[in-house]
Each structure stands twice: as C-alpha cells, then as structure tokens.
TrEMBL record:
This is Cytochrome P450 2K1-like. One of its GO terms (cellular component) is cytoplasm. The gene is LOC120044845. One of its GO terms (molecular function) is heme binding. Coiled coil: none annotated. PANTHER family: CYTOCHROME P450 508A4-RELATED, CYTOCHROME P450, FAMILY 2, SUBFAMILY AC, POLYPEPTIDE 1. Belongs to the cytochrome P450 family. Its cofactor is heme. It comes from Salvelinus namaycush (Lake trout). Signal peptide: none annotated. It holds the Pfam family p450.
C-alpha cells in the first residue's frame, strides 16, 4: 500500500487536506476578484481571504495604521476589515469635501455591529434615511433652545463646575483619581440639557449609569469588539459583548424611568429639557 493511500485512510488527514484545498481555492477566487476590482476601487493594501488586512492593523489603535497607510496610498484608499471592504477618507480637506460638498451622496452611515447593538439602527448619530433627517432637524432646533452652542450652555457648565469644585476640595489637595467626578460633571451638564435637571454625585443610580456608559466606551474600543465588527458571527461567544449588552439594557431601564417621570409631570407650556420637547412633539403628532 502506498504512502498516499495510508494517509487518505486517516480521517484527520483527509479533513486537513480538504481544508487546505478549500483555502487555496478561496485564495485563488479572492485574487481574481481583487484584480477585477482593483481598477474600480481606490488603491490599498492587498487583502488576505477572510482576514482582509486584519494582520496589518493595530487593533488596539487602528487609526495609527490607517494614518500610515494614507501616506502610502493617498487620502482615499481601501482597507478590508475582515471580509468587509471599507473606503477610508484621510485628512481634513478630503473629509470636508465628502461630508460637506457632497453631503447628499455621503449622508448615510455604515452600521458596525457594535453600533447596531447600541442603537438598533435608530437615533441621531447612527440612523439613516428620512426619519434620521427629520430627527436631526428636530434635535438641532430644540437643543439650541436649551443652550447647546449658545451662552445658555455656558451657564449650565458654570453651575456644574461649582459642584465639581466642592468634590475636589474635599480631598484637601491630596492626589486622587479625577476620572469619576469629571465624568459625573460632564454627564450632569448633558442631563441638564436633556432632562432639565442634574443629579447629586452621591446618587447611586446616577453613578451606576455613568460608570456603565464609560465601561461600554472602553469595551467598544477593545480588540475583541474590533474582531466582532469584522466577524459578527463571533458575537454570541464574546464575553465583552455580553457585558456591553447587559450595560445597555440596564441603562435603558434607568433612562426609561426618567422619561416616564417626566411624562407624568409634563407641562407643554414649560419644557424643562429636550425630552419634554420631544414628548410635546409626540403628543402633537398623535392628535
């Protein structure tokens, strides 16, 4: 019996050979596809099958790799995040030309899996289509009424600074971690605009909500979530994504309670914050 026949009788060897043949075929198909698309898409590094340019990226700080690639391929280039092809715009002039001079063509937003986990495709930041345009117009008009971009926001910030100074003075000049009090101060400024009120730094629910939001920002930038964005099928097995979803759900519950409280005490003649304006608008449309 020849050596080849012996090897073929081993199931593990057959599986390995099959996998190698599959990868070889995939690589050949990918190479043909890339060569056909090369004239259509902006230039960029050659991707590997399935992995794309993942091995070339610094997953902890991908922007560093993208900046280096822009020096080689120009301000518009193509990168493959796993199997997904992405066109990168680098530099202020290029981004401005796309988002300002050609706002209609570049108006839609790509929805990364982790962003969809946050928003379910809704909201001002990551929505698309006519509903997003209407929401954006409403938000900009009403947020200005509550001080965004005006002197009113300065007053809210100045007011919050007094509370922050009180916290800092309690440490009597000793070294301490300022991360949490600064986060709570920023959150209170936002809360004042959105809900029309602030929270005490000692409020356990408020602290937990802000801490969960900060934790989610950290998780969203982690290597595991970057891999999840490239390969969404990894999601169910990622511990970090499970924690992210849990935090999102808990924060939604807390915000839901706040909105219900505002709805019960709503006075259409005197809106306390952005949420009140939204509720009044909603009531108007339902009539």
């Amino acid at each position: 019996m020849s050596l080849i026949e012996v090897l073929l009788q081993t199931s593990s060897t057959v599986t390995l050979l099959g996998a190698l043949l599959f990868l070889l075929a995939l690589y050949c198909l990918s190479s043909d596809s890339n060569s056909e698309e090369q004239g259509k898409a902006p230039p960029g590094p050659r991707p590997l099958p399935l992995l794309g340019n993942m091995l070339q990226l610094d997953l902890k700080r991908p922007y560093r790799t993208l900046c280096k690639l822009s020096k080689k391929y120009g301000s518009v280039f193509t990168v493959h995040f796993g199997p997904t092809k992405v066109v990168i715009l680098a530099g202020y002039k290029t981004v401005k030309q796309a988002l300002v001079n050609h706002a209609e063509e570049f108006g839609d937003r790509g929805m990364l899996p982790v962003l969809y986990d946050f928003t379910n495709g809704h909201g001002i930041l990551f929505g698309n289509g006519d509903s997003w345009k209407e929401m954006r117009h409403f938000a900009l008009a009403n947020l200005r009424d509550f001080g965004m971009g005006k002197k009113g926001s300065e007053e809210k910030i100045s007011e919050e600074i007094h509370y922050l100074i009180e916290v800092l003075e309690k440490h009597e000049g000793k070294a301490f971690d300022t991360t949490q009090p600064l986060s709570y101060a920023v959150a209170n400024v936002i809360s004042n605009i959105v809900y029309g009120s602030r929270f005490e730094y000692s409020d356990s629910k408020f602290r937990a909500t802000v801490d969960r939001a900060n934790e989610n920002l950290r998780i969203a930038g982690s290597v595991s979530v970057q891999l999840y964005n490239m390969f969404p099928w990894l999601g169910p097995w990622l511990k970090s994504r499970k924690l992210l979803l849990k935090n999102i759900e808990n924060n939604k519950k807390e915000m839901g309670e706040l909105v219900r409280g505002l709805k019960e005490t709503l006075n259409p003649q005197m809106c306390r914050g952005f949420v009140d304006s939204f509720l009044v608008r909603k009531q108007t449309l339902e009539v």
